[in-house]
Amino acid sequence: MKSSAFVILIFAICSSVNSGQLKRVWMQDHCTSGLCQGVTISRDDYVILSNTPITKQIILTFVNSTIAKIPHLMFDTFPDLQILRMDNCSVETFEKPQFEGASNLMGLFLANNQIRDIPKNIFLGADNLNTLSLAGNQLRHLQNQSFNALKELKSLDLSHNKLENLPPGVFSPMRKLMELNLSNNQLTAMPERIFEKTPNLTKVHLSYNKFLKFESEYFKNHPKLSLLDISGNPLVDTTINFDVLDTLLANDCELHKLTIYGYVKEVELRNNSLQDIPNFPNAANVTVLDLSINPIASLEATSLRRYIGLAKLNFSRTKIHDFPEGVFKKQTKLKVLDISNNSLYNLKVSVFDNLKALQYFYFHQNNWNCDFLQLLMNSYVKRREIVFAEDDLEPDKVDDYVDGVACWYESSRTSKKCSEDGESVLELAIIRNDIKAFVETVDKKFVKIFRLLDEIKSKV
Ligand SMILES: *[C@@H]1O[C@H](CO)[C@@H](O)[C@H](O)[C@H]1NC(C)=O
Ligand SMILES: *[C@@H]1O[C@H](CO)[C@@H](O)[C@H](O)[C@H]1NC(C)=O
Ligand SMILES: *[C@@H]1O[C@H](CO)[C@@H](O)[C@H](O)[C@H]1NC(C)=O
Ligand SMILES: *[C@@H]1O[C@H](CO)[C@@H](O)[C@H](O)[C@H]1NC(C)=O
Ligand SMILES: *[C@@H]1O[C@H](CO)[C@@H](O)[C@H](O)[C@H]1NC(C)=O
Ligand SMILES: *[C@@H]1O[C@H](CO)[C@@H](O)[C@H](O)[C@H]1NC(C)=O
Ligand SMILES: *[C@@H]1O[C@H](CO)[C@@H](O)[C@H](O)[C@H]1NC(C)=O
Ligand SMILES: *[C@@H]1O[C@H](CO)[C@@H](O)[C@H](O)[C@H]1NC(C)=O
Ligand SMILES: *[C@@H]1O[C@H](CO)[C@@H](O)[C@H](O)[C@H]1NC(C)=O
Q1: pTM of the predicted model, to two decimals?
Q2: How would DSSP label each residue in 274-336?
Q3: Does 38 sit in the ligand 1 pocket, CB within 6 Å?
Q4: Measuring CA to CA, which residue among 77, 96, 79 is closest to residue 39?
Q5: Dist. CA 203–CA 226, nearest whole Å
Q6: What is the pLDDT of residue 95?
Q7: Residue 443 has pLDDT above 90, yes or no
């Protein structure tokens, strides 16, 4: 039955060919165990893949092939096909009808091709498709009905395209959609009710677009939303308002201010312009907080008092030069603390006393005073067998190392003098840190300048 229908189809196709070439690409010559290579199909070819249907072929992967369009007879030739991989195949366009007979197809991977348009209703026939990747194509616009018929789709990847806007009903046919990747496009805004018909969205990537603002309203009826990625957008002042979210990623934005209502467990805010710890009523439920690469500079003793559930905290590259006593008083569950690459010089070692659960402590790339560092190592880090990281500075740029972590000495004369005047020690340390940070980038041989500074200091 099936094969006679197939032959008729071929005849129907052949007799309807007016322009273009009839081309035979025998799959047997190109494919072994589902891996096909060296297939070339141009836009105008009408391709026959086999004399008879090839059954029981579940997965097909094309590599090193140039296929301007998926052959019209693909799903008649491979009636059992469930997964079709044509990434990197220079696919440009679709034929119509393209997915007739593709009711077994569950995964379609068309990443890194040259597709410019998803015509209306093109997916008719692929009514069991579960996963669709169109990442890395040339899509600038979509049509309201581009994804019609994809009622079983759960994962859609449109990342790395050139999408500038989205029609309001574009996602509506995909009621079961759970994962949507729109990252690395040119979106500046989205229609207000665009996700109204996709209530089961779980992971949404909106990163590296041009959104100037983010509205939590988009997801107001999405109780399953667990991961939201809005990184890499020029968001300056943002409010996030969800009942419960597992992960919020807002790295590489320009955030000066972030307010979060509701519950979020993991919050990544790397590389923003935050000067304060985010204002967050349910901070107690945050387990991961990444504030690295923000100009925080200074903390107050109470800055972290609500963050009692933290397991991982990153303060790397935050220009911090002091931790006030008591700042980590409530972080008894903290396992990982990164304070590397700051301007830390000297602290009260008791500031870490309450970090009873700490297992990984990264404090390299600072300006540690050797005496303090020795104390920190002996009285805390090594006693509790905490894992730390070493510096990789060359010896001529460092006074000494304590267990591989770089440090610098004060000359005994000056430190005695300065201990009489705590203020000026601090100021000097800050100046020294600033000079170090500056010189590090210009000329790594900053030790000379430190010596000079020490001399000046002893003359003061
Ligand atoms: C694809 O072509 C490249 C270079 O022409 C070759 O190195 C690679 O092995 C080929 N891939 C496969 C799966 O045959
Ligand atoms: C596509 O090609 C790029 C670079 O040519 C390569 O990095 C990528 O792994 C390829 N992807 C697939 C799925 O073959
Ligand atoms: C787009 O689709 C939605 C829902 O599928 C529909 O309500 C709306 O009228 C459509 N808009 C256009 C311009 O076709
Ligand atoms: C959402 O998921 C639930 C359970 O996972 C399911 O019962 C429900 O039908 C789904 N909703 C839609 C619109 O698919
Ligand atoms: C979505 O895109 C981001 C960034 O391009 C990438 O890191 C992520 O792995 C993608 N997710 C999926 C499910 O494709
Ligand atoms: C920080 O984010 C900006 C974009 O906002 C990006 O250009 C820059 O490379 C990022 N810097 C780092 C260190 O990741
Ligand atoms: C928030 O934390 C409190 C106390 O640890 C806990 O009882 C509550 O269940 C948490 N809420 C959510 C939504 O995780
Ligand atoms: C902390 O952040 C820095 C900079 O973003 C990163 O390189 C480092 O791996 C992070 N530390 C941990 C422990 O994740
Ligand atoms: C340390 O921070 C400086 C700027 O603050 C940056 O240029 C450098 O790459 C960082 N080093 C590492 C290893 O992250």
Answers
A1: 0.86
A2: --S--B-TTGGG--EEE--SS------TTTTTT-TT-SEEE-TTS------TTTTTT-TT--E
A3: no
A4: 77
A5: 6
A6: 87
A7: no
**Domain boundaries of the chain, sorted by first residue:** 420-460
Q: How far apart are the CA of 176 and the centre of ligand 4, in A?
A: 7
Ligand 7 close to Cβ of residue 388 (< 6 A): no
Protein residue closest via CA to atom 1 of ligand 6? 252
How far apart are the C-alpha atoms of 410 and 153, rounded to whole Å?
Answer: 65
What integer pLDDT is reported at residue 457 of this predicted model?
60
* Tokens 């690295």 -> residue: 292
Q: pLDDT by residue (tens digit) across 30-62? A: 999 999 999 999 998 888 898 899 999 999 999
CA dist 102 to 9, 76, 78, Å?
A: 15, 8, 9
State the Cα–Cα distance between residues 202 and 275, nearest whole angstrom: 31
Query: For ligand 7, atom 13, which residue shows the shortest CA distance?
Result: 263
Strand 66-67 with 83-85, pairing: unpaired
Contact 50, 26 (CB under 8 A): yes
Torsion of CA 330, 351, 267, 164, to 10 degrees: 150
* DSSP label at residue 381: I
